Amino acid sequence: QVQLVESGGGLVQAGATLRLSCACSGRTIASFAMGWFRQAPGKEREFVATINWSGASTDYADSVKGRFTISRDNAKNTVYLEMNTLKPEDTAVYYCALSLKYDGNYYTARSLSEYTYWGQGTQVTVSS
User: Fold this and answer.
1) Cα-atom radius of gyration of the chain, to the nearest Å?
2) Checking DSSP bridges between strand 122-127 and strand 58-60, what pairing results, if any?
3) What is the pLDDT of residues 8-17, one digit of tens each?
4) Sign of the torsion formed by the C-alpha atoms of 73, 76, 78 and 81
């Protein structure tokens, strides 16, 4: 059974840095794209960042570009999201997801529908 477990969330002040981790068990992530999404209260879940199987290709939402960095360690079956210069509007539950779709070596995915497995989420709260 595939499980994704996020960690690293918390309550921080604006301008701080957090690093989220997402550990996968039950299958290797090495061949697949991974993504981070977030959901704020009363809003729909939205795309944050995605990374291809090797880490060579990444894509970000405009709202986090230049502040967030997605990375992965396939040997540890883990994907990361480093979040710098956090803003109150980054407050949300952050979810990682695993896509089983393959569409070329540099495949990444922005759409929720491209992902098969999801973690339970980790809360990030940024105070002003």
Assistant:
1) 14
2) unpaired
3) 999 999 999 9
4) negative
Which residues, 6+ apart, have CB-to-CB distance to 121 below 8 Å? Answer: 6, 39, 93, 94, 95
Residues ≥6 apart with Cβ < 8 Å to 52 = 33, 58, 105, 106, 107, 108
Q: Is 27 left (phi over 0), alpha (psi -120 to 50) or beta?
A: beta
**CA–CA dist 72, 58 (Å, integer):** 11
First-to-last C-alpha distance (Å) of the chain: 40
How far is the C-alpha of 96 from the C-alpha of 52, rounded, in Å?
A: 14
Q: What is the pLDDT of residues 58-112, one digit of tens each?
A: 999 999 999 999 999 999 999 999 999 999 999 999 999 999 988 778 888 999 9
Three-state DSSP at 90 gives helix
Token code pair at residue 126: 């940024």
Q: How many whole angstroms separate alpha carbon 42 and alpha carbon 107?
A: 31
CB contact at 8 A, 22 and 96: yes
The first and second tokens of residue 52, run together, are 């291809």
